[in-house]
Amino acid sequence: MSYVSLGGKYSGVITKKLKNGATSFFIAYRNSESKVIREKVGNSPDMTKAKALEILRDTRKEISAKRDLIKNPNSPIPKILKKNIDKKLYTLNDLSDFYFENNTSKKTNRDQQNKYNYHFREEAFASKNVNLITEDDVNDFIQRKSKQRADNRRSNSTNVTFLNRKESKRKRKSRAKDLRLEEREQEEFDKNNLLMNQLELVIESYKDKAECWREVNKVKYLRERNKVLSYRLFKEKAEILLKDKSLSIDDINALLGILSRKTIKELLLLISTIITFFNDKKKLNIANAFLIRKGNSLYITVDNSKNRYLTKVEIKAYLQEVKKVALREPQHKYIYLISLLALSTGSRRDSILSLKIEGIDLETGNISFRNFKTEKNFTGFISSSEIKNEIVKVIDNRDSSSFLFEGSVPGTKIATFPPKMKEILDYTVNCNRSYLKHLTIKEFRNTVASHLAMGGTPIAYIAKVLDHASIRTTEIYAKLSPSVAKEDLSDFSNDFLTASEEKSD
Q: Which of 70, 278, 381, 382 is the most core-located residue (most Cβ within 10 A)?
């Protein structure tokens, strides 16, 4: 249905008929930057044209008041602004505290809170009246973030693999957080050089180079990693990189370790979500300067196409090595089954690691996973006899209420994917890729979806496998889908498992 602009005294109010018979109401106005905005204010029967008109008038008064206040910051807060913020001068930090306290998704809440505290909590605009945050504030934030180095220290998990392994895990984490990012990268650079020298001595001791392929591949990976670190540590290297016309700005930022445009867009979306949540719960109409629509000069366009995945040859190489390590090293006994489930079900990390034995039905082949984003359960499948056999081995007559992958303390689960998985991925797969095409364990989920799409599996089925809340999320894989053939999970799993079922040396 098309939009209808109401005339007369309702000028600026727009309606749209919905398929269910209800009417959506919008208001059109010019914001403080004189840009035309069309904003939805509600649906019938809760919203009427009279209520919409009242909101429009308040919005216009609010914009006018904000302009006056910006011109004279020392003047008293206008009444219209006090009315719209429930007689309290809410700040962005106030809104975020309310959101994190009342948002029901604990997992999402924790991750978002870490992100908010790291990127926004100390911002000047986060401590002022949220209605007075302007587009200039948002633009300034975007410009600064576009030059900021990406650092993983906003959460409790810190990459410290290059630090002295003789130190306790707690001390290594504490020490890593005390170091500046540049200092940590310099340590990693030096550590990698030392390790490469040691590996090269080992390689020289072998007559048959095929027997030391792991060492050779580790050197290849470390050399590529240090090449990237040199761009970040040495100014002359960075200057050469910046002159490379064959690289896009996103590629250069990735090599320099600068926040990506996608990350910045996600940060803006987080704040927009917080403001919307607060407005909905408090029945307010607080201005949302972070809601940036297409056509706005601040709108960030990102490529959401999912083209980062392992090839079937890479999957075989990775799984074959993971299986050998799991058999050879008892402390890594879980990594093969974790990898199999990740590469056959496409489930997220927390869904896999939170699996309980009672949630696995070996007779039907069904697995009950938990989606911690939607806080709902969904069904996955045991798609090969190899996976079923591994599950039986890991269960090993344990109590059905136990976690499938137990932590070091009985009754607890593993909190994150074992680092050994990433280490193996690096020397079996990433060693043969350029840094910009390196993969992480997170790409296992994308690998499942990509191969199903390329095999011709309908997008609706892939959405069910990934347990996407909306099929629109899955449609990013549509361009990978050919017009012929279909490949289901069993065919896909059995295909890449051929090599991993070979006898381990």
A: 382
